[in-house]
Amino acid sequence: MVQITGGSKADEMIEQFRLRCKEVGLKVTPQRVAIYKALLESREHPSAESVYRTVSNVMPSVSLDTVNRTLLTLAELGVAFVVEGTGDVRRYDAILEDHQHFRCIKCKRILDFHCDEFDNIETPEFLKDKCTVLRSSVYFEGLCNDCQGKESK
Ligand SMILES: [Zn+2]
Ligand SMILES: [Zn+2]
Questions:
Q1: Ligand 1 centre and the CA of 103: distance in Å?
Q2: pTM for this predicted structure
Q3: How many angstroms separate the alpha carbon of residue 99 from the centre of ligand 1?
Q4: Residue 62's domain spans which residues?
Q5: Of the residues 82, 106, 122, the one at which a domain ends
Q6: pLDDT tens track for 95-133
Q7: Quick one: which ligand is closest to 45's CA?
Q8: Which long-range contacts (CB under 8 A, 24 or more apart) does 140-145 make?
């Protein structure tokens, strides 16, 4: 797994998050910061439930509903995004540096990797005419080695 964001970088990102909130006139509440921090510090592309479990340890008053809504707000602010992939609960990522994902369809683990070639994917002409592409990504799906091992037994 690529280690994209280190410890000191996290503080910097939280500061940027505060600025971003102020920019759009959103209150920087302790809850919002705690939720963003939990997402930032998780290496697992957590679901809302998982972020909720982490945050409720330090902030028992927080509700799953608040976490759900806040994560969507983070995505709207552009400080996090929903990991691609279907048929599953939403998974979130606060790592904004270019990177790609592999998702194991069995254990649902999401691995980060980075391949330069996938960073700047040319938008096909067909789409250029019809829409404005804000984000594109390369996404792989399959079985991780652990699950593959279990399968073949
Ligand atoms: Zn797996
Ligand atoms: Zn990621």
A1: 8
A2: 0.78
A3: 20
A4: 7-82
A5: 82
A6: 988 899 999 989 999 999 999 999 888 889 999 889 988
A7: 2
A8: 140/100, 140/101, 140/102, 140/103, 141/85, 141/102, 141/103, 141/104, 141/105, 142/102, 142/104, 142/105, 143/104, 143/105, 143/106, 144/102, 144/104, 144/106, 144/107, 144/109, 144/111
